[in-house]
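Consider the tokenized backbone below.
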């Protein structure tokens, strides 16, 4: 069960937000069915997050209709590609202070993606359905869950495609210059040569120790599923048959929609999901319990992206309630790579199926 509480402790038991919160906590432990969302899974994994956290204080002002939601990150600029000569033991030093500000780089990130779910409850309807409002809320959160995961995953997938950079030779990893890699041999078992090509590309970009995330559709699923039946076997001296740090996500091939098999790869930690709450402390303080509420509640859909904004409004009759759940988020690159010492570690590849049939990632009905 979730142990995350609401961000505002002043919310009392009489608030509808607390009632919603108690329902959410009963849902977190349930294993719910759905298609694999490998992009979301990789981005929210501990290996990718690496302790990264970006949260705004709830007592700060929020943007107006004409302003932007922005967050900032900072990094030290690496110093490389120098050609120096030692001055010697008897050299007279010169004292020129460093320009401290120039040693750091700041990046501004706009939070432009968002998601909303809402439900309108008529208390009269519950009498005929023999259901309590709390039970209906639980059912609606359950109904929304898979769609929320798919919507967020699809938006993050499009963002990763937009971030994909160049290979070490300068060619664009998106488009006709995308490099083909193969993960299977003629028998359909894992062949590490494709993985070696990906690792080599990352090393040439300045990330020699990265074990990149590799997210793809049916080809990744097939290789990793076959691996489950390969224990104890050896193919040409290879006794590991899974693609390291791989995640299955059929939405990757669907996003490209060209009939090919695609892979999205990035170095762990190089991409992060930043979230933004519009609700502030002052808004929560001014809420009217069970009538007009604005609150911050823990993740109602198990996304792993942090707290959501919650809104409750009741019509003049007092019998119709509208509940709204909203979250602003975006994919950011917190480290502003300089392109000299280290280049952007986000690359796209296509899959060479070789003598094996290329599997389709289509999930349509």
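A designed sequence for it:
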């Amino acid at each position: 069960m979730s142990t995350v509480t609401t961000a505002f402790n002043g919310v009392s038991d009489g608030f509808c937000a607390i009632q919603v919160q108690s329902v959410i906590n009963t849902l977190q432990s349930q294993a719910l069915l759905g298609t694999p969302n490998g992009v979301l899974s990789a981005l929210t994994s501990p290996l990718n997050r690496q302790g990264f956290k970006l949260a705004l204080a709830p007592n700060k002002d929020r943007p107006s209709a004409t302003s932007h939601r922005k967050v900032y990150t900072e990094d030290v600029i690496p110093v490389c590609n120098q050609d120096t000569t030692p001055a010697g033991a008897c050299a007279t030093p010169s004292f020129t202070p460093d320009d401290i500000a120039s040693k750091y780089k700041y990046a501004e990130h706009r939070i432009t993606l968002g998601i909303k779910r809402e439900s309108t409850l008529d208390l009269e309807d519950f009498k005929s359905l023999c259901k309590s409002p709390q039970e209906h809320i639980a059912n609606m959160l359950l109904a929304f869950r898979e769609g929320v995961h798919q919507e967020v995953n699809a938006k993050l997938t499009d963002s990763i495609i937009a971030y994909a950079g160049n290979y070490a030779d300068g060619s664009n990893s998106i488009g006709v210059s995308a490099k083909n890699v193969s993960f299977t041999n003629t028998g359909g078992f894992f062949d590490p040569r494709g993985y070696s090509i990906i690792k080599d590309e990352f090393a040439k970009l300045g990330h020699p120790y990265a074990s990149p995330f590799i997210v793809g559709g049916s080809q990744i699923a097939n290789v990793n599923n076959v691996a489950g039946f390969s224990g104890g076997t050896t193919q040409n001296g290879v006794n590991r048959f899974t693609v390291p740090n791989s995640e299955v996500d059929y939405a990757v091939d669907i996003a490209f929609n060209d009939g090919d098999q695609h892979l999205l790869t990035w170095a762990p930690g190089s991409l992060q999901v930043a979230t933004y709450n519009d609700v502030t402390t002052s808004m929560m303080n001014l809420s009217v319990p069970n009538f007009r509420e604005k609150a911050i509640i823990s993740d109602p859909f198990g996304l792993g992206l942090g707290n959501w904004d919650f809104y409750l409004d009741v019509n003049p009759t007092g019998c119709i309630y509208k509940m709204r759940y909203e979250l602003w988020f975006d994919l950011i690159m917190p480290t502003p790579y300089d392109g000299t010492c280290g280049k952007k570690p986000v690359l796209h590849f296509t899959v060479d199926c070789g003598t094996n049939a290329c599997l389709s990632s289509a999930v349509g009905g």
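The longest helix spans residues 133-163.
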